[in-house]
Design brief:
The protein has 16 helices and 18 strands. By secondary structure, it is an alpha/beta fold. The chain has a six-stranded mixed sheet, with helices on one face. A four-stranded parallel sheet has the order 2-1-3-4, with helices on both faces. The termini are far apart. The chain binds N-carbamoyl-L-aspartate.
Amino acid sequence: MALANRSLVTIDDLSNGEIEALFSLADEMSDSMNEQFGVCHGKVMASLFFEPSTRTRLSFETAMNRLGGRVISAVDVKATSLAKGESIADMARVVGSYADIIVIRHPWEGAAKVVADYAGVPVINAGDGGHEHPTQTLCDLYTIKKERQTIKGLKIALWGDLKYGRATHSLTYALARFGATILLRPGPRLELPAHVIRKLTTEYGGELIRSEALDQAVKGGLFPLDAIYITPSSPHQLAMMPDVSIQVELKTGVDALYVTRLQTERISAKAKRQGLKEHYPVVDKKLLKGKEFKRTLVMHPLPRIDELAYEVDADPRSMYFKQAERGVPIRMALIAFLLGAKEISVPKEGDYFILKIDYPVYRREFGVRCSNPKCVTTQKGEIKYIKPEFKIVNTKPLTLRCAYCEHEIHPQYIASSEWHDGTLDNKKYHSADSHWTRKIKPENLIIFDSQTEAEAHGFKPSHYARVGH
Ligand code: NCD
């Protein structure tokens, strides 16, 4: 399969084999950096960074410069026509007619997908709000792979802001797909969002264990943990006898500790920020004295604030500057593949963990919309042209996953486009809790946010229109 002309919006846009091929090319390129000039000769990369960035933007631009291509850039929304009210789609079309490839960072979740849908050239997501940051994950995985040769079977602890951290979301998916065990240690009220957990336990087929065994393990001197995610490759007794096995498993040590900062810029309400900093987990020399951290790679996507002490920098276990440095060869390899400047040779897929679940897709001009205020589909200028799209990931209770930001919503009312015998009297809507949600074929389902909306479309309440039916 070729990578040319494809986009990278989420880490799941690349198969494990493609990621491995990328790593091989990154190795080759970093061993012969000076011979890469000319690989992308004559090509132009647009670098659009509408949120602060040091590493991601500069490593992308360095990468293109080292490949002999040219870079055009915009780093401030206020300096672009977006500030005049231009839509992301129009901007994407125009920039796509100037550049051969676009790298975009934007505060709205799902913005990179919109750019990819309209640009007509490959688009790389350099971070879309709190959604995903797939190229950071490539740098992270590449570092783990280089230091430990494999990812499968490793125990990787994710620390800090697992809720708003886009880098952690992409990394969690990738670790699960490569068969790692994930130890979750979120800050207070900063657990992984529901949609990330659903993906882990359905698409990637693993199990999330939150048990008393964890509390006991902590009491027994192990570091605090909220949950453990195990892939189908992990020893079965871990799932079956967590009480004994978790202690044993953790005592053998943690392979990597991935530290993240509190994403303050994504938590606008002061009340929501209360108490988050005070109990935020900190990684310092003292913590790393623990037996379980003897051989641990200390990782961080950077920038750090207070969660990772400077005293760790001199420790050979610290990996964060290496992660940042490796961003250049990784992004060189990615650009070269997406521009078709290098042929990809994908190794045969191993026993990777991803189940292709074909959830029914819900896509209508009217009816339910995403309720995430940070989703691109809910923004004033974008609502005019983006057709809402969801995956129906559950019917009991009815749960939709937005195709843009991937947040889950639980709409309250449903109807069928095939209302019985076609007479208006039978054009009824029902509570989403009723049996009708499973009875109506997914392709006929109409989903509403409210009764008012259902009635505005000519539907009348059925006996099953009350919530809780
Ligand atoms: C991350 C990001 O922007 O999401 N930084 C980066 O790209 N290296 C992590 C962060 O900002 O905390």
